[in-house]
Amino acid sequence: MKLVKVKVNGRIREYPANTSLKAIADDYREEYDNDIILAFVNNKLRELFKTVDKDCEVRFVTTEENTGHKTYVRGMILVMLRAFYSELGADNIKKISLEYTIGNGLYCDYEGNIPLTQELISAVRKRMQELVDRDIPINKRSIGTDDAISLFAKYRMYDKEKLFKFRRVSKTNIYNLDGFEDYYYGYMPPSTGMLKYFDLMLYDEGFLLLLPNEKSPAVIEDFVPQKKLFYTLKESNQWARMMGIETVGALNMAIAQGKINDLILVHEALQEKKIARIAEAVRESGKQFVMIAGPSSSGKTTFSHRLAIQLKAHGLIPHTIAVDNYFVNREQTPKDENGNYDFEHLHAIDLEQFNRDLTDLMGGKTVDIPVFNFITGRREYKGNCLTLGPEDILVIEGIHGLNDELSYSLPRDKKYKVYISALTQLNIDEHNRISTTDGRLLRRMVRDARTRGASARDTIAMWPSVRRGEEQNIFPFQEDADIMFNSALIYELAVLKIYAEPILFGIDRNCEEYVEAKRLLKFLDYFIGTPGDMVPNNSILKEFIGGSCFKV
After folding, report:
1. In sequence order, what are the residues at sequence separation of 6 or more whose Cβ sits closer than 8 angstroms to the Cβ of residue 232?
2. Phi-psi group of 330: left, alpha or beta (phi > 0 → left; psi -120 to 50 → alpha; rest → beta)
3. Which of the listed CATH numbers 3.40.1000.20, 3.40.50.960, 3.10.20.30, 1.10.10.10 matches domain 3-62?
4. Average pLDDT over residues 249-255
5. 135: number of Cβ within 10 Å
6. Residues 271-275: contacts with CB within 8 Å, 24+ apart?
7. Which among 122, 152, 300, 523 is least buried, having the fewest CB atoms inside 10 angstroms?
8. Distance in angstroms (rounded) separating the CA atoms of residues 72 and 191
9. Bigger pLDDT: 374 or 274?
């Protein structure tokens, strides 16, 4: 019998060749606080049903890691769908679609012959628990893409059928749970037994699949409604339905049929209409300061300029100030627990100077507004002087804009707060969401390579720190906003593809960030690329790909 040496956590054990990663993981289960769900084998991500046939080093991935958490969520979606189809029968289900995340809940739409009631939700939840208790294997098979298209048509999964008409790969992986087959973008758990933590509840016109977060992978926290965020997401979905572009397949079809220019113009017009409404609300409020906040790469700078133009059209005299220009010099930037610069920290901003300048402006003094040089890591003064008159209004944008600690010198009742984020309304298909985080990461990667001298590897490496900063410093304040604005454009990933792919291919296969680069490249492969020259020069997207008419 052939034996192979497997190194785990610095120790080597021998196993018979073709032992599954799941069997090896069982030997190490007691060394981990949470369930092992995937594994890296010689730095290549693998599902646990895979086997080892030669000497290797294995690093197990648990549900408390980002990759593991996403796999857990994917598995729970499959369990939920299997339960619905078991409870109702395929003939009674027209469509179940995953729409967006609200807190710890995944909001889903349901269309079918049987009404969505609490009784139905309870029955489905019971079925889900039964599937988990039985610890059923999740099996994977590979079929020809043409066969997959026929299969999805048979199952009336028409979004998937449309998506795969534009796939260039010859094979497609299909997952099977208890006879229910589906396609998923990403890996799956080995079986249902580890998918123990979930809940279902009715919400709005659909339902929520409640899941643990990666920080507490064995806990289902109480659901906290975020009404403003939910309304904004719902409005964006309505726009997508109106344009007939809810999935990547529909977007690809529009591009292939030469309809992309109209699509770009319509969505840009919808955003401009929304910005005009916000400007009108600001004018009616009588407030003196517009505070614009949002996470990284949400398009705050371009939005602030476009809002300023609309404010002028409503008879106001706006002046924009970017909080990023008040960054402390690079060496004074706070550091995170890993010793890296934490640019998302509130005290990465020179709060004292920022508020001193605001106080001087309110007092009628002339202030030289700085410009931060991201390449040198220094603030520079170039004679950008500003003096406010009695009719002027300040438009202040930065990730901490909704936090009153940033602008402690300004009266609270004089601030009109706007939260902006790129909340991706497009899905790969009805059962595969596009993460809002992925959209923003691609935006930032393209912009940073163009303007800040950062490689794609640099952006990927710092992204976890960016996300932690957002969780701590931005998201807790979003429901305090007077209004929210979604800056995501339904066509933008088709444009970003052309800019992002070359820099992602530039990441070395042997570095840690290559795993994420490979995932993003696979994701972008779903899209037909489209040139950025059709994008209007005042578009938020131009802030990232270049060519904006604003100084961004």
Report:
1. 423, 484, 485, 486
2. alpha
3. 3.10.20.30
4. 96
5. 12
6. 271/487, 271/489, 271/540, 272/306, 274/485, 275/303, 275/306, 275/307, 275/310, 275/485
7. 122
8. 11
9. 274
Answer for the pair 495, 541: CB distance below 8 angstroms, yes or no: yes
Q: What is the pLDDT of residue 465?
A: 84
Rounded Cα distance between 281 and 483, Å, is 9
Task: Say how far apart CA 247 and CA 429 lie, in whole Å.
Answer: 5
Do residues 410 and 219 touch, judged by C-beta distance below 8 A?
A: no
Question: In this predicted structure, which of 436-445, 466-475, 514-523 has the lowest mean pLDDT?
Answer: 466-475
Task: Judge if 68-224 and 229-545 fold alike in CATH terms.
Answer: no
pLDDT average, residue stretch 295-302: 93
Q: What was the pLDDT predicted at 314?
A: 94
* Distance separating alpha carbons of residues 77 and 74, to the nearest angstrom: 5
Q: Is 376 exposed, middle or buried (0-12, 13-18, 19+ CB in 10 A)?
A: exposed
Give me the sign of the Cα torsion angle 337, 340, 341, 343. Answer: negative
Determine phi and psi for 96, rounding to 5 degrees: -120, 120
pLDDT at residue 332 in the model:
93
Class of domain 229-545: alpha beta
- Is 333 a residue whose pLDDT tops 90? yes
Does the pLDDT at position 422 exceed 90?
Answer: yes
345 and 469 Cβ atoms separated by less than 8 Å: yes
d(CA 171, CA 151): 13
Interval 1-32: pLDDT, tens: 789 999 999 999 999 999 999 999 999 999 99
Q: Which residue has the higher pLDDT, 544 or 470?
A: 544
324, 350 Cβ separation under 8 angstroms: no
Q: Hey, what CATH topology would domain 68-224 get? A: Threonyl-tRNA Synthetase; Chain A, domain 2 (3.30.980)
Q: Is 467 left (phi over 0), alpha (psi -120 to 50) or beta?
A: alpha
For residues 71-88, give the mean pLDDT: 97
